[in-house]
């Protein structure tokens, strides 16, 4: 079974508007972390934001926030005030404490296009 | 240099060639990883080195041979590759703890490999 599911292959958003990228996950480990990465066309995978399974509050980093709904096993990324430079591929990833150190599972990604 | 660097950024090789990819991390981390990203496929973890020991080898063909001489450097030696090995190869590093941890993985810019 796929552990990370990103159901939106592609998304469009108007510049300056907010957009939500969906991510659902599957794990039986009570301790895990969720990560979002941005990958521009240049290829580099850029870390954006992290949410721990025991964190009481949703993570925020500048214009990025993570809408963490533990019971629903979802960790959606919200980008506020979209900019043209936000156009990229976005990946959701999970690391479980119980697995071998280092093992991350990535979703298939969502391509975000910001329209001027 | 800061973060994680990879060389070369682009590589074209024939099936009979031998080449090496290099990764260097300047973050003081103790774990390094090789990932393969093919078109229309999720990111695949290939190798993990924690504390300089290989702890993960996800059934990678023997034509890929990793080497981790110290905690800052990681190599991927390539020989007799196939055209289907053409992909973006990403290196990452993190600061992992012996009792398990969820530290963020930071990625390099990748090497885009084309096998003719």
Keywords:
heterodimer, A: 116 residues, six-stranded mixed sheet, four-stranded antiparallel sheet, 0% helix, B: 116 residues, mainly beta, 55% strand
Give average pLDDT of chain A, whole number.
92
Global morphology of chain A? globular
- Portion in helices of chain A: under 10%
Q: What assembly state would you assign to the polypeptide chains in this entry?
A: heterodimer
| Count of discrete alpha- or pi-helical segments spanning 4 or more residues of chain B | 0
The total of beta strands of chain B comes to: 11
* Percentage of residues in helical conformation of chain B: under 10%
As residue ranges, the low-confidence spans of chain A are: none
Greatest interface (CB-CB under 8 A), with counts per chain: A-B, 27 and 26 residues
Structural class of chain A: mainly beta
- Count of helical regions of chain A: 0
Query: Spans of chain B of 5+ residues with little confidence (pLDDT < 50)?
Result: none
Radius of gyration of chain B: 14 Å
In whole angstroms, how far apart are the ends of chain B? 32 Å
Written account of the structure:
The complex is a heterodimer of chains A (116) and B (116). Chain A has 116 residues and is mostly beta strands. Chain A has no helices and 12 strands. In chain A, the strands form 3 sheets. In chain A, strands 2, 5, 6, 10, 11 and 12 form a 6-stranded mixed sheet that branches. In chain A, strand 8 and strand 9 form a beta hairpin. The model of chain A has no long low-confidence stretch (mean pLDDT 92). In chain B, a hairpin with a 2-residue loop joins strand 7 (64-70) and strand 8. The mean pLDDT of chain B is 88. In chain B, strands 2, 4, 5, 6, 9, 10 and 11 form a 7-stranded mixed sheet that branches. Chain B has a 4-stranded antiparallel sheet with strand order 1-3-8-7, with no helix packed on it. Chain B has no helices and 11 strands. The chains are: A mainly beta (116), B mainly beta (116). At the A-B interface, strand 5, strand 6 and strand 10 of A face strand 5, strand 9 and strand 10 of B.
């Amino acid at each position: 079974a796929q552990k990370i599911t990103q159901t939106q292959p592609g998304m469009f958003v108007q510049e300056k508007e907010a957009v939500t990228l969906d991510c659902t996950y599957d794990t039986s480990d009570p301790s895990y972390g969720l990560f979002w990465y941005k990958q521009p066309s240049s290829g580099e995978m850029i870390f954006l934001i992290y949410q721990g399974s025991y964190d009481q509050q949703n993570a925020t980093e500048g214009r990025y926030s993570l809408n963490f709904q533990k019971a629903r096993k979802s960790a959606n990324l919200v980008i506020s005030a979209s900019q043209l430079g936000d156009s990229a591929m976005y990946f959701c990833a999970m690391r479980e404490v119980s697995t071998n150190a280092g093992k991350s599972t990535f979703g298939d990604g969502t391509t975000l296009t910001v329209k001027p | 240099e800061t973060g994680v660097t990879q060389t070369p950024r682009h590589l074209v090789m024939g099936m009979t060639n031998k080449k090496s990819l290099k990764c260097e991390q300047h973050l003081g981390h103790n774990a390094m990883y090789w990932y393969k990203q093919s078109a229309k496929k999720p990111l695949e973890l290939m190798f993990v080195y924690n504390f300089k020991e290989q702890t993960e080898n996800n059934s990678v063909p023997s034509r890929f041979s990793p080497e981790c001489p110290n905690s800052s450097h990681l190599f991927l030696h390539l020989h007799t590759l196939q055209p289907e090995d053409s992909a973006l190869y990403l290196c990452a590093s993190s600061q992992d703890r012996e009792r398990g941890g969820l530290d963020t993985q930071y990625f390099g810019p990748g090497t885009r490999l084309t096998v003719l």
